[in-house]
Write a structure and sequence with these properties.
Layout lengths: L2 E4 L5 H28 L6 H6 L11 E4 L15 E6 L8 H34 L2 E2 L8 E2 L3 H7 L2 H34 L4 H13 L2 H11 L6 H8 L14 H26 L3 H9 L4 H12 L1 H16 L3 H7 L10 H10 L4 H25 L8
Antiparallel strand pairs: 1-3, 2-3, 4-5
Helix pairs in contact: 3-15, 4-15, 5-9, 5-12, 6-9, 7-13, 9-13, 12-15, 14-15
Subcellular location: Cell membrane
Keywords: Cell membrane, Membrane, Transmembrane, Transmembrane helix, Transport
Protein name: Carbohydrate ABC transporter permease
Length: about 375
C-alpha cells in the first residue's frame, strides 16, 4: 500500500470500519517496531526508531506508518484525517562490514595470494638480496649495503649490456609498430579475406619462442641458410649473422620484430574499429583524402593504443631472454647481451646473486622511470575521445 489515503465521511459506519482496520494495522506496526527497538536496546521511542522523524534514524520494519500519534488515534473515523504509508529506507544491518568489506575480500583472496606469492614476495626478496653477497651455495648471506650497486657503476660489462638493451628497444619497437599499423590499415581496407590475413600475421605471436629461435638459427646459417642463399641470388655475400659483433644484435632484433608485429596489428585493428565512421564521411565531404584522414583522424584517435603499445613494448624488449639465450648466448664478446641475460649469467653461471639482484632492481627502476615519463608527456598528446 503506498501513496496518500484521504478519507471523507459520507458514511459514518464505513468510515468507522476503515478506521478500525487502519488502527489495527497501526497497532501491529507499533508492536513490531517496539519489539525491534527493544531487541536493539534502543529506547528512544518506538515512533522515532520506526520513522526517524526526531532522531534521524533509518526506518525499520517492512512498512512504516506515518501519522501524528498512534497512541492518540481514536476508534472513530472523526479523529482520522490523513494516513500515508510509505516504503521504508533499507536499514544498514550490523553485518554490513561482512557484506561490503569481508565478502569481496574473500572472493579476491585467491588472486591476492597468487599476486603476493609470484610478484610481491620475489620483488621484496630480490631487493633484500641486492644488499647482500651470496653464492646460492653457502647458507650465509653477507650484508654489503650498496656495494653491489657501486660495483655496477664501475663495471664496463654492465654499461655495454645496458647500451645493447637500449639499442634493442630502439631497433624492435618502432619498426614492429610501423609494420603492425601498416598491416592493420591494409587488412581493414580489404573486402574479403580479412580473417585469413589476421590469422597468418598473428601466427608468430602464438608460436613457441624456442621453435622460432631454432628455425631462425638454421635460416641464419652462413653456408646453407635461407637468408644468405637469397642474398646470394641478388649478388650479395651474406655475413655470419650470429657470430659477428656488428650483425648479431640486428639478427636477434629481426626475429623479435617478426614475432611481435602481429599482436600490435590486432591492437591497431581494434583501435580502428572503435573510430566513428561518421568522422570519415564528414572528412570526405570536406575534401580530405586518405592520407589526411590518416594524419588528422586515425592517428590522433589511435593515440591511446600507441601509448599502450609503447609502454608494453619497452617492458617486453627489456625482458627479452629466450632469443638471446638460443641464438647468440650474448656473444660474441657481449655484443648481443642484454640486461635479463646478464642477470641470468651473474646468478646461475657466476653465482653472484647479489650483483644479479642489483641489476634487476636497476632494470626495474629504469622501466618504471620511462613509463612515468611517458605517461606525463602523453597528457596533452593522447586523445581518448
Amino acid at each position: 500500500m503506498h501513496g496518500n489515503w484521504v478519507v471523507d465521511r459520507p458514511n459514518r459506519r464505513a468510515g468507522e470500519h476503515f478506521g478500525e482496520r487502519m488502527r489495527t494495522m497501526g497497532e501491529a506496526v507499533r508492536r513490531e517496531t517496539i519489539h525491534d527497538a527493544a531487541r536493539k536496546q534502543d529506547w528512544t521511542g518506538a515512533r522515532r526508531t520506526a520513522c526517524g522523524t526526531d532522531s534521524g534514524r533509518v526506518c525499520r520494519g517492512d512498512w512504516a506508518l506515518e501519522y501524528g500519534d498512534i497512541g492518540g488515534m481514536s476508534k472513530s473515523m472523526e479523529s482520522l484525517t490523513t494516513v500515508s504509508i510509505r516504503r521504508r529506507v533499507p536499514a544498514v544491518r550490523s553485518g554490513w562490514r561482512y557484506r561490503y568489506v569481508l565478502k569481496p575480500l574473500l572472493f579476491l583472496l585467491p588472486a591476492l595470494v597468487l599476486y603476493a606469492v609470484f610478484f610481491v614476495y620475489p620483488f621484496v626478496y630480490t631487493l633484500f638480496l641486492s644488499f647482500h653477497e651470496w653464492d646460492m651455495i653457502s647458507p650465509d648471506r653477507t650484508f654489503v649495503g650498496l656495494d653491489n650497486f657501486r660495483q655496477l657503476l664501475h663495471d664496463e660489462t654492465f654499461w655495454t649490456v645496458l647500451k645493447n638493451t637500449v639499442r634493442y628497444v630502439l631497433m624492435t619497437l618502432p619498426v614492429s609498430m610501423a609494420i603492425g599499423l601498416t598491416l592493420a590499415l591494409l587488412t581493414e581496407s580489404l573486402i574479403r579475406g580479412r580473417a585469413v590475413y589476421r590469422f597468418v600475421f598473428y601466427l608468430p605471436v602464438v608460436s613457441s619462442i624456442a621453435v622460432i629461435a631454432l628455425v631462425w638459427s638454421f635460416m641464419y646459417n652462413p653456408h646453407d641458410g635461407l637468408v644468405n642463399e637469397n642474398l646470394g641470388m641478388l649478388g650479395i655475400r651474406g655475413p655470419n649473422w650470429l657470430s659477428q659483433s656488428g650483425t648479431s644484435l640486428w639478427a636477434v632484433a629481426i626475429v623479435g620484430i617478426w614475432k611481435s608485429f602481429g599482436a600490435e596489428m590486432l591492437f591497431f585493428i581494434s583501435g580502428l574499429k572503435s573510430i566513428d565512421r561518421g568522422l570519415y564521411e564528414a572528412a570526405s565531404i570536406d575534401g580530405a583524402g586518405r592520407f589526411q584522414q590518416l594524419v588528422r583522424i586515425k592517428l590522433p584517435l589511435l593515440s591511446p593504443v600507441l601509448l599502450f603499445l609503447v609502454i608494453v613494448g619497452i617492458i617486453s624488449s627489456f625482458q627479452s631472454f629466450a632469443l638471446i639465450a638460443i641464438l647468440t648466448k650474448g656473444g660474441p664478446n657481449n655484443s648481443s647481451n642484454v640486461l635479463v641475460y646478464e642477470v641470468y649469467q651473474e646468478a646461475f653461471q657466476y653465482f653472484n646473486v647479489g650483483k644479479a639482484a642489483a641489476i634487476s632492481i636497476v632494470m626495474f627502476l629504469l622501466v618504471a622511470f620511462v613509463t612515468v615519463v611517458q605517461l606525463r608527456l602523453s597528457r596533452n598528446t593522447v586523445h581518448y575521445q
